[in-house]
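Protein in question reproduced for absentees:

***
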Amino acid sequence: MADGWQWDSTLFQGSAAYYERGRLPYAPRFAETLATTLSLDGRGRLLDVGCGPGTVSLAMARYCTEVVGVDPDEGMLAEAERQATRRGVVNARWVAARAEDLPAGLGAFRVVVFAQSFHWTDRDRVAVTVRDMLEPGGAFVHVSDHKSPPADPTPLPLPSPPYAGISQLVRRYLGPVRRAGQGILVDGTPDREDAVLAGAGFENVQRHVVPAGQVVRRGADDIVAWVFSRSDSAPHLFGDGRDDFERDLRTVLRQTSPDGRFAERLPATEIMIWRRPDGERRRHRRDR
């Protein structure tokens, strides 16, 4: 969790409806890569902490007996349930809770996944709790976009979304320091998951980069949805000025692409895996 920032329930308030349309997907083979790496064969349980609208949970459901998605935002869980119904996924369930509420009576898991959510938690505390929830040899998985891909010299067929201009507009409306719920992130979100997990007793780290790079065509509505899907520009942060902000946002988009069409490359997906030691017995509550 970021220094000086306190979690509150408005972090992603109102963003769930924009997630599927606004967020670029993970690399097409990320779920297959994760399943192959972890030898998932349709057995075992997977816990997705900070599951949002079920992006990872639903992709991994076919490889597990059960997937459990945990998120504190009721709107995200409602969207996850809607997506599960739409896709015909019947072995997923959704629990309203924070990572700090774990183990929450959820039992043991073969895999626990944090997809770009671990940085919002009390990481030292949560890592120890998750370690105790994993079966011996179980995996703690961190999924994210690959942050430093090599440049692709091939020109895009359409203009790229004007992310720098969007960021400037958000700052003009919400202030120069990144917003997060009712608070601000002066120094951004923390990194160095490796140090946190080593301190919690995880070992045998593996890194996998799942390639992507496909050209994705996007419309102005998609970019607006991306903005409102983010914690630092969630709809509620703009208050009565939301309509004015969206009007100005669409003006910025038209200045870059008058017909509202954009293109960008799908980023590779980075998967980091840490293991709970094989020979270690799971502790029961009375062991603590």
Residues 35 and 63 are 7 Å apart (CA to CA).
